[in-house]
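Input record, target 12 of the design panel.
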């Protein structure tokens, strides 16, 4: 008779402790969720500005036939495009972002083959595709062109 009472008391005490533990865990989860909700998340414009810089540097790397740098720059563009797909899903423009994939593949292929002529024509297609996407997403006022000057004066684009 004493064993069932003792067992009941142990279960009751355990249940009280479990409730406190669950409440503590829920409080921690809620706190972490609030931090996540308020954490910095890059916007579409942040990614697009990043792409614009790498698009510029890509041109000068290709013109100098610095294929290692050109490969680096196209991969930076790919990384920014992946960031858009990951962090900007709430933007309707993101639905059109895949239109750039064939142009990216084409210029990547030209870089891998170290083909200066193919690079130049692929770069033009890439630039036109950017503008086509801007038109399709009602951002036609944002016109991209082949750069005239490097974005930074402290970088050499010559292959070492």
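The sequence produced for target 12 reads:
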């Amino acid at each position: 008779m004493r064993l069932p009472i003792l067992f009941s008391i142990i279960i009751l005490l355990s249940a009280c402790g479990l409730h406190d533990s669950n409440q503590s865990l829920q409080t921690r989860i809620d706190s972490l969720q609030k931090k996540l909700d308020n954490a910095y998340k890059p916007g579409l414009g942040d990614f697009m500005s990043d792409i614009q810089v790498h698009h510029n540097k890509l041109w000068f790397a290709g013109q100098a036939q610095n294929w290692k740098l050109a490969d680096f720059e196209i991969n930076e563009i790919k990384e920014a495009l992946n960031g858009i797909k990951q962090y900007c899903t709430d933007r309707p423009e993101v639905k059109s972002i895949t239109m750039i994939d064939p142009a990216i593949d084409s210029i990547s292929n030209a870089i891998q083959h170290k083909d200066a002529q193919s690079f130049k024509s692929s770069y033009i297609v890439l630039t036109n595709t950017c503008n086509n996407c801007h038109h399709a997403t009602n951002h036609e006022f944002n016109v991209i062109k082949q750069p005239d000057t490097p974005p930074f004066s402290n970088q050499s684009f010559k292959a070492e």
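DSSP finds five helices and no strands in the chain.
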